[in-house]
Amino acid sequence: MQNITTVILAAGHGKRMKSSLPKVLHNISGMSMVEHVIRVAQSVNSENIVCVVGHGKEQVKAQLKDAPVKFVEQNVQLGTGHAVMMADEYIEAGDILVLYGDVPLLSESTLNDFVAMHQKDDNDATVLSTIVDDPRGYGRIVRGSKGFERIVEHKDATPEELDINEINSGIMIVKAPILKTLLKQLENNNEQNEYYLTDIFGLILEQQGKIGVMIAEDDYEVMGINDRYNLSLADEYMQKRIKKKWMLEGVTMISPASTYIEIDVQIGKDTVIYPNSILQGNTVIGEDCIIGPSADIKNSIIDKGVSVKHSTIIDSKVDEKSSIGPYAYLRPKSDIGKHVKIGDFVEVKNSRVGDHSKVSHLSYIGDGEVGTNVNVGCGVVFVNYDGTHKHLTQIEDNAFIGCNTNLVAPVKVGKGAYVAAGSTITEDVPADAMAIARERQVIKTNWSNKYQKKV
């Protein structure tokens, strides 16, 4: 492809969203709308990606601080033509691709075909259109015997033109020298006193230029998001696209409609995802996993052969062949080894649990290091917080921690050591020792007879 500069129009207010958040920052499947547009622009190897910001510009810039974009400002919104004028310093050579920050569903394949058609046909400008059942409110593409004739806005269309179902998406690509020249010729003599970018097509035809039109097969790809209802439709569409991709890659989804998968999630083949599961952020799921039902996993790495049922995992790692849940909660910085069992109602936070260890139920593992082949009994608590600081609990390999034990950090249980059930451990337990830290049982015979009612 020839040199391409992409200009993304993202300065609008979006009043119909009824939100303090700029419209282009609203989320679709784990990414803001404008970030979806930036990503698709990258697919055509844009040399420069220029984002025109205005309303909420500081929020938009903050959100995109790590994105490969340059910013120009449109502090007064005077139309699409005026917005592109703000990027004049970047309109120098090659082709200028104009995209919209609130049109996030355009696919890489459609955009690449669009750019390829424009450059292959050596068009001065090319517009992306689509066919819709209800074209009300959209500008119509009017064609004649020689192809494209003009774009007519709905309010200006004749009855015959109102019957046209091919609409203008607003997405276009124009040779840079032509665009740079024509932007200076745009006028704002209309009811809104705005500069319309689409007016350049008439100017190109007046100069005997060549304009091409490509029809996007799926009208959803060019749908603009104007309100929360549009946002929900866009998210639903994106979800279908994401889930179809993974199912075609060998992932089984028992109930796709009840599963939510964000765009950057990765899933290995032969993994089965059960209903009501949510996979978010930069989560990576390995092969042959069982995810769900009702698994909620965010920014975590789940290795091959892992089972996660009715559990939440955040910013953590689970190594291969381990079992999580039901009803477990892995909080940030949990690192679970191989062949580990984290059972029901177990909470783990900022801790490493070594290979072949078991924390089967009703325990809290916080700020801990658990070795290999350790058994942590029911109701064990790592008492990690003294009211000011967090402290470390260490359990070395092959240790056994009995039920209802409190390990008061900082404390260490040595290799092969045993801690008796019901103990509160405040001092280190040497390797291979037995620690008992509880009151000796006392039995008082015939004691309850004084308190039982006579029958």
TrEMBL record:
UDP-N-acetyl-alpha-D-glucosamine binds at residues 9-12, 23, 74, 79-80, 100-102, 139, 153, 168, 226, 331, 349, 364, 375. InterPro entries: Bifunctional_GlmU, GlmU-like, GlmU_C_LbH, Hexapep, Hexapep_transf_CS, MobA-like_NTP_Trfase, Nucleotide-diphossugar_trans, Trimer_LpxA-like_sf. It comes from the Bacteria. Its cofactor is Mg(2+). Binds 1 Mg(2+) ion per subunit. The keyword S-adenosyl-L-methionine does not apply. HAMAP family: GlmU (MF_01631). Keywords: Acyltransferase, Cell shape, Cell wall biogenesis/degradation, Cytoplasm, Magnesium, Metal-binding, Multifunctional enzyme, Nucleotidyltransferase, Peptidoglycan synthesis, Repeat, Transferase. It is found in: Cytoplasm. Residues 250-455 are annotated as: N-acetyltransferase. Gene3D superfamilies: Hexapeptide repeat proteins, Spore Coat Polysaccharide Biosynthesis Protein SpsA, Chain A. Residues 7-129 form the MobA-like NTP transferase domain. In the N-terminal section; belongs to the N-acetylglucosamine-1-phosphate uridyltransferase family. Mg(2+) binds at residues 102, 226. Residues 1-228 are annotated as: Pyrophosphorylase. Acetyl-CoA binds at residues 384-385, 421, 438. The gene is glmU. It catalyses: alpha-D-glucosamine 1-phosphate + acetyl-CoA = N-acetyl-alpha-D-glucosamine 1-phosphate + CoA + H(+); N-acetyl-alpha-D-glucosamine 1-phosphate + UTP + H(+) = UDP-N-acetyl-alpha-D-glucosamine + diphosphate. Its EC number is 2.7.7.23, 2.3.1.157. The lineage of its organism: Bacteria, Bacillati, Bacillota, Clostridia, Eubacteriales. PANTHER family: BIFUNCTIONAL PROTEIN GLMU, NUCLEOTIDYL TRANSFERASE. The active site is at residue 361. Pathway: Bacterial outer membrane biogenesis; LPS lipid A biosynthesis; Nucleotide-sugar biosynthesis; UDP-N-acetyl-alpha-D-glucosamine biosynthesis; N-acetyl-alpha-D-glucosamine 1-phosphate from alpha-D-glucosamine 6-phosphate (route II): step 2/2; Nucleotide-sugar biosynthesis; UDP-N-acetyl-alpha-D-glucosamine biosynthesis; UDP-N-acetyl-alpha-D-glucosamine from N-acetyl-alpha-D-glucosamine 1-phosphate: step 1/1. GO terms for molecular function: glucosamine-1-phosphate N-acetyltransferase activity; UDP-N-acetylglucosamine diphosphorylase activity. This is Bifunctional protein GlmU. PROSITE patterns: HEXAPEP_TRANSFERASES. Pfam families: Hexapep, NTP_transf_3.
